[in-house]
Amino acid sequence: MRDMQYQGRFVWRDLNTPDIEQSKEFFVNLFGWDTEVFDLGPNGTYTMFKIRDGEAFGGITQLDPSHSNPPNWISYISTEDVDGFCARASELGATVAVEPLDIPDVGRWAVLADPQGAYFSAFTEAERTPIAEPQGSQPHGAVVWNELMTSDVDAAGAFYARMFGWNTEVADVGTGPYTLFRNSSELAGGMNKMSDEMPAPAWTIYFEVSDIDKAVERVGELGGQILFPVMEIPQTGRITWATDPAGAIFGMMQSEPMP
Question: 118, 201 in Cβ contact below 8 A?
């Protein structure tokens, strides 16, 4: 495992949903994930998702009915100091939706909306562990990409550059200009202008699938919905967006084989 720069890494994901059992059953059946339930005492339980026979990469929580947000996946991005991060982000026009909180023996986190309204979590681990970039082809159900759809590409790019030190570059992906985020020399994710049909700016997580056509069929069988036909991205693979039965949006990608 290579030690990587800590700042600006996607390190965790949470699915916020009104029906934990329904959403858990959907994703476990679609991606073959394992689950592990942790007892949080008076705070209930927390279910982790794991790639089959692999490490945990995310979890599932109860959507707070007092919030106006729809069911969603939210990504945790590492930062050296959550409290300082929130103060700086607020100065740059972001909104702190959940003030910094401690997770005992895990770390400290907060939920923010960037100046355009896309939600993400800032996170600092209690004990810093090395972060390694995934190497080679990824298994079915693995996280393979993070993509920001935003109302203002230039402004969003400037915000994330200031906050995480990401660099941006525009690439031609065969479907038009596409902005890439780089954390040092490593790709951190991508960004594009949101369509008029999207209700609000948002980060979307893409999961690897071994056969995207079969995955599309499976989404429907499990009560989810496909949002647009499968699209081919040259030198990348085939992608689509879907929702689980509760309406949480996620992406699926069948990556091109590595040369």
Answer: yes
d(CA 238, CA 231): 5
pLDDT digits (tens, 9 = 90+) for 63-122: 877 767 889 999 999 999 999 999 999 999 999 999 999 988 889 999 999 999 999 999
| Overall pTM > 0.85 | yes
Q: Is 5 helix (H, G, I), strand (E, B) or coil?
A: coil
Domain holding 221, by residue range, is: 143-255
Q: What is the pLDDT of residue 131?
A: 55
CATH number of 249's domain: 3.10.180.10
Mean pLDDT score of the chain, rounded to an integer? 91
E strand or H helix at 253: strand 249-255
Count of domains observed in the chain: 2
What is the rounded distance in angstroms from the CA atom of residue 246 to the CA atom of residue 16? 10
CB 180 within 8 A of CB 168: yes
Residue 235's region, left for phi above 0, alpha for psi from -120 to 50, else beta, is: left
Tokens of 241: 């967006």
Q: How far apart are CA 238 and CA 7, in angstroms?
A: 30
Assess contact for 61 and 102: CB atoms under 8 A: no
**48 belongs to a structural domain:** yes
Tell me, what amino acid is at 117? G
Whether residue 164 is contained in a domain is answered as yes
pLDDT tens digits for 106-139? Answer: 899 999 999 999 999 999 998 766 555 555 578 9
